[in-house]
Write a structure and sequence with these properties.
By secondary structure, this protein is α/β, with parallel strands linked by helices. It has helices at residues 15-28, 47-58, 71-85, 99-111, 126-134, 154-160, 183-194, 220-223, 255-268, 274-285, 289-310, 347-358, 382-397, and strands at residues 34-35, 94-98, 117-122, 138-143, 165-170, 200-204, 231-236, 248-252, 325-326, 360-361, 363-364, 374-377. β5 (165-170), α7 (183-194) and β6 form a beta-alpha-beta unit. The longest helix has 22 residues, at 289-310. The N and C termini lie far apart (49 Å).
């Protein structure tokens, strides 16, 4: 068999995908698994977005779409950035992509040369590091531990940036921790970035509307306009509007970068589904009350899950500002044995034992660059969350040693 490309040697399938597959395999055998491993809203896509896609199809909007996005969606994206983030982008400063993930991939492929460094606060969404590697870059992680609220300290960022740094990644609210930066905290990060003008800045704002307790979201180019000429602001419809399967992402940034990303996209996927883009226009321009209502429901779930986890022996859970994840420490479970006799030495052991013995699917923190933690998604109904938390409590109560 011919050899595969070496660029994939250091890249692994996402741990959340692997854990989800294990959960499905157990479920196929009749096991009643509750999956808290996927970062996918359980709410339906808004009806007016679905209707917009239907009407677009009936109008015959089923041909190849413009590679950078339809004029209607690009205009809606520009309005969104202005309305929500105070960011003005020209038409040639916006691109529509197959999910937010492609925007990040396009940017890395268009800018990274072999050995270029990508600074990534840790814990981090697993794909950041792997996409950087595929593009020839070197991920440089900056630990942001629980005792810092999982937030990036300016001095740690400053120490991580070198002459080889090509990108600095920001993702607040964060996957996997839900941590978000206040305006003052973001301004302190911006001061560091201003001292390093050779580095691009990427802000992945996919969870911007999922913030709680009166927290006010902000994005780096809004907080510090002097950074806007070298900042790529990435977003999409997947989380805010429960449109994961529609694959609509978008980004705003300087025209030369967007042009390079356009070129990269042309060699990979070209344009995004035309009917999906019509749905996205309706979502972005339509009524936004549903977004706030769903955020309120997420907050109720967050409060329940945090309290339930903190009541479990061996688990401590930080209260996140946003997203729909918690990232509890399972340090107190290590060194103990499960009722089935499994010795828990790592957070991966804990995640596997929870799946195989308690039938709750979570993802090990090691996959996100920080142990000993697990990521738990509360993007599921309260009935399932209540049963999952009861199973986790029984599991912790049964640990010995």
């Amino acid at each position: 068999m011919p050899a595969l490309a070496q660029r994939l040697a250091a890249v692994q399938v996402s741990a959340s995908v692997v854990m989800g597959q294990k959960a499905r395999e157990l479920a196929a055998r009749g096991v009643a698994v509750i999956s808290l491993s996927n970062g996918e809203p359980d709410f339906p896509t808004p009806a007016h977005a679905i209707e917009a896609a239907h009407q677009a199809a009936l109008r015959g909007e089923t041909k190849y779409p413009p590679q950078a996005g339809t004029p209607a969606l690009k205009a809606a994206v520009r309005r969104k950035f202005k309305r929500d983030n105070g960011l003005d982008y020209a038409d040639d400063e916006v691109i529509v992509t197959n999910g937010g993930k492609q925007a990040i991939f396009n940017a890395f492929m268009a800018t990274l040369d072999p050995g270029d460094e990508v600074v990534i606060p840790s814990p981090f969404w697993v794909s950041y590091a792997d996409m950087a590697k595929v593009a020839g870059g070197v991920p440089v992680t900056v630990p942001c531990p629980q005792n810092n609220g999982f937030k990036l300290r300016p001095e740690d960022l400053d120490a991580a940036i070198t002459p080889r740094t090509k990108w600095v990644m920001l993702n607040f609210p964060s996957n996997p921790t839900g941590a978000a930066c206040s305006r003052a905290e973001m301004a302190a990060i911006a001061e560091v970035l201003l001292r390093h003008p050779h580095a691009w800045v990427m802000s992945d704002d996919m969870y911007e509307h999922m913030v709680y307790d009166g927290f006010e979201f902000c994005t780096i180019a809004e907080v510090e306009p002097r950074l806007k000429p070298r900042t790529l602001t990435v977003n999409g419809c997947s989380k805010t509007y429960a449109m994961t399967g529609w694959r609509i992402g978008f980004a705003g940034g300087p025209a030369p970068l967007i042009k390079a990303m356009f070129n990269m996209q042309g060699q990979a996927t070209a344009g995004v589904s035309s009917v999906g883009q019509a749905a996205a226009v309706a979502a972005l321009d339509g009524p936004q009350e549903l977004v706030r209502e769903r955020a309120a429901e997420y907050r109720t779930r967050r409060d329940f899950v945090v309290a339930a986890l903190n009541a479990c022996p061996g688990i401590t859970c930080h209260v996140p500002e946003g997203a729909f994840y918690v990232f509890p420490s399972v340090a107190g479970c290590l060194g103990k044995r499960t009722p089935a006799g499994r010795l828990l030495e790592t957070d991966t052991d804990v995640a596997l034992a929870l799946l195989e013995e308690a039938h709750v699917a979570v993802v090990q923190g090691a996959a996100y660059g920080m142990s000993p933690h697990v990521r738990i998604s509360y993007a599921t109904g309260m009935a399932a969350l209540e049963e999952a938390m009861a199973r986790i409590r029984r599991f912790c109560d049964g640990l010995a040693g």
